[in-house]
Amino acid sequence: METLTFRTRELAKVYGEGRSAVHALRGVDLDIPKGEIVVLLGPSGSGKSTLLNIIGGLDRATGGDAFFRDRNLTAMTDRELTRYRRDHVGFVFQFYNLMPSLTARENVELVTEIARDPMDPDTALAMVGLHDRVDHFPAQLSGGEQQRVAIARAVAKNPTVLLCDEPTGALDSTTGRAVLNVLKNVNEKLGATVLIVTHAASQAAMADRVIHFADGGIRKIEINETKLAPEEIEW
Amino acid sequence: MVSPLDRKLLRDLWRIKGQAAAIGVVIAVGVAMLVMMSGLVTSLVQTRDAYYDRYRLADIFAPATRAPDRLAHRMAAIDGVSAVEPRVTGSALVDLPGLDLPVQAQAVSLPDLSAPRVNDVFLTDGRMIDSDHADEILLLRSFARAHGLRPGDRISATMNGARHGFRIVGLAQSPEFLYTTAPGELIPDDARFGVLWMSRSALSAAYDMEGAFNEALLTLAHGANEAAVLDAVDRLLAPYGGTGAYPVADQTSNRFVSEEISGLEASSAAVPPIFLGVAAFLLYIVISRMVQSEREEIGLMKAFGYTDTEVGVHYFKLVMAVAVGGALAGCLLGIAGGRALVEVYVIYYKFPFLLFQLDPASFAAGVSVSILSASGGGLLVLRRVFLLTPAAAMRPPTPPDYSRAGNIGRALNAWLDQPSRMVLRRITRQPGRMAGAVIGIACGMALSASMITIYAAFDRTIDLTFNVMDRSDVTVSFTNALSDMAVFELRRDDSVILAEPRRHVPAVFRNGLNSHRGVITGIPPGARLGRALDSQQAEIPLPASGIVLSTALADILNVRPGDRLTVEMREGRQPTLQIPVTAVAESLLGAPAYMNLAALNRALGEPGRMSGVLLAIDRDRAPALYAALRNMPMVAGVSLKSEAEAAFLKTMNTGAGAIRYVMGAIAFVITFGIVYNAARIAHAERYRDLASLRVIGFTRAETAFVLLGELAVVTLAALPLGSLLGHYLSFAIAAGFSSELYQIPTIFDPPSHGFAAIVVIGAAAVSGWLVKRDIDRADLVSALKTRE
């Protein structure tokens, strides 16, 4: 039985060349077990989003390997990466990235239409508590509501992993807590591995595993024996 | 069920409706022009052919002096001839009340008892003539209309030296006389040359032609050998003063109509592709920039696992909706425009009915060019976006690097405020994108500048023809070649300032396989009223031997100065000569040829003869001169240059040349569309920046300056480039408008370019105003919160 969802070895990412080169990742070794909630903490530019993009198949490493289960993402073609994202990965972004021209339900349908084993879009929206706003356009929704649509969109495909880049970054703390609660539910109900990149150190309390980033590398990894519920977290 | 992507597509289309409509309109007018012009030409050709066919227009015209009727039977027996109609024709001078000068006309016989087998007439008013009444005539409808004559009216005419009174019983049209041109003149004029049909018996009596004919009309069986029949007819008529049978292709009216239609055909082949090409280029630029602005959404769709093909198909549909929508609208517009134009031309060409035909190839060409250019623009950008990783495509807009651009013009910084620096740096930062905008607007400028230049060139053609080349006021033509002593008689008239003899001799020019049926004009040395001029308007001396051809004729015959030309003169003893071409003369009207008058007379063996006189007159005393000319028996016709100029102007403004106004209007629409699109795109690209400026406290005017300043710089940069492009474009368009009837020379005309610049600047001002309204209305908060 597979126990690791992600495994990286000497994973490196360099932007640019020569003197202007920026080392976003400097040889990261990391194991992420299946079904955990993992929080990645660290200052801006420490490499956490870059890592998320690479293991999510959105970006390519410039060195090392990144494995999803036993498949090496760094060796995949564009076509294989597309397939991987389509079948396994759900994304939640800081700025929601909804299609402004589609309603909440249609934004979810955008994903369920191409997924292998999707859930009903209304079910996904009900999971995030938006069953009564399915026909609203993004411009008619508050920031928290928009982020919940984005989460519904990400979970509607029954993803293996849910990758969240600053999911509460644009939200107030009350709304943010509601969003984190949704992520926790998804983790529990669907068994998806959830990775959350955040600035807010207090959010680490809800994680199974906390990874601290600094300067393109992992500074330390903590395992939480006792997790807090999102409602109990302050930031 | 409609997929969410398709719903997104529909809503995106609605969101960009203004811009999509502007692009659609540009494509639509480009395609409309193609469909309209080709439909127009196809319809006119089909209508002409059907008219000729239905009224049995002759395939061969065979003039003679006087041939016995029995010869007609021998002609009918020639292999390939399907019908022969012998007839009598003669020149007449019609006296009309209220006119100083009599009007020239041609009298044509109709068989006494039956309809003509060849060259039938189409009766439009009144009834056919009754051969029992010798004074009954049919009058050419266009001539009757020009003079307000109706069935029942009476007119008198001089024929063969005798005066006859006639009663008009009907008005008629004929495919033979779609255009009527007085002998020796090039420009048709309904008012100045008439046709009257009479019974064969009456006309034979007037011209002493009983039992004889002076023109045979022949139709050919399908597949007949035209050249062989022409030879056979010439041999039969040679003893009876035959001056050479000629095919319908050389018949004056048909040649004029066919030249006009082929002029339209040439301009429809040359101009619409240029317009469509500019529209296609614009579509390419706009679509590529539109897809560029969708970068983030493309990245997002890819993040969800949509393949490149799926994303590509989605945008391809968007692009196709605009391009195909525009192209189809263009087809409909083209059909409507074509129909309207054809109806105008049917009246102009005097066709009694209309066959409206469309050219399916033009639809296919218009739609496929639009699709190709649109998808080209879309796919090229999509390919670039696909090369990025989804993460890079979606990355929140990182500020473009202006560090290097900031250095450009650093020296200027001291004099520039921040908004001006923003304008300057944006232009220098993205030179490729700016170049696209500049080239787009330059294309619009080029279209307008070239069309306005063409307008000026038409005016110049008239000016050169009637003020520089021909300085006479009056042309007098004689019934036959006279002694040039008659010039002295005219010079004695008080009103005559200058009188110069001319001789016009019909001739066939041949060079290898190229031939042309035209006229040689004999000009005396030192002539001042009408001369052969070179392209610099300097006089070309006419040597004692040799011939000077107009550029049009030299082109038709494919000869150059120094070549020898075969000239078959069709008058007098009809000599055939080998004559060296000594020079090529600039001529904008017709395809004339010039010889020294003495040399021409020598060739004909008729020294000291002339067929007409050019006069410069004192206009105050003109009525006395006209009265004197009226009483000269040898005068066949008198034409005034002012009338000829008016007729020429009318021809250029109602015939094939009239289409230039339609094209000009379309050029303006495209120019405006291009400029408006450039402004729209710039606005779409900078929506968030502009809202940010408003948020930090810039006034509306200051914000608008940042965008409109850029538009102003781009527009100004486009003007010289567009002027240059327009200059070259005008050559292609002028060639399309030039025909054997008249030539449109292209010159660089600064006022035309200035006017085009005003058009472009005006379009930019209106576009800027429209875009500024949107900037003023922008919802600042939502602009910053959501993507545009």
Quick synopsis:
Chain A: It comes from Sedimentitalea xiamensis. Chain A: It holds the Pfam family ABC_tran. The complex is a heterodimer of chains A (235) and B (788). With 235 residues, chain A is α/β, with parallel strands linked by helices.
Describe the overall structure.
The complex is a heterodimer of chains A (235) and B (788). Chain A has helices at 48-55, 78-88, 104-112, 121-127, 143-155, 173-190; strands spanning 4-15, 22-33, 37-41, 63-68, 71-72, 89-92, 161-165, 193-198, 209-214, 217-223. Chain A is an alpha/beta fold. Chain A has a single domain, classed as P-loop containing nucleotide triphosphate hydrolases (Rossmann fold), CATH 3.40.50. In chain A, the strands form 2 sheets. In chain A, strands 6-7-8-3-9-10 form a 6-stranded mixed β-sheet, with helices on both faces. In chain A, a hairpin with a 6-residue loop joins strand 1 (4-15) and strand 2 (22-33). In chain A, 49% of the residues are buried. The mean pLDDT of chain A is 88. Chain B has 788 residues and is α+β, with helices and mostly antiparallel strands. Among the domains of chain B are: 1-58 and 269-398, no CATH class; 61-85 and 209-250, Alpha-Beta Plaits (2-Layer Sandwich), CATH 3.30.70; 89-207, no CATH class; 496-617, Beta Barrel (Cathepsin D, subunit A, domain 1). In chain B, 53% of the residues lie in helices and 19% in strands. Chain B has a 6-stranded mixed barrel with strand order 3-4-9-6-8-7. In chain B, a hairpin with a 2-residue loop joins strand 7 and strand 8 (162-173). In chain B, helix 7 packs antiparallel against helix 22. The longest helix of chain B has 42 residues, at 308-349. Chain B is elongated. The model of chain B has no long low-confidence stretch (mean pLDDT 85). Classes of the chains: A alpha/beta (235), B alpha+beta (788). Chain A: It holds the Pfam family ABC_tran. Chain A: GO terms for molecular function: ATP binding. Chain A: Belongs to the ABC transporter superfamily.
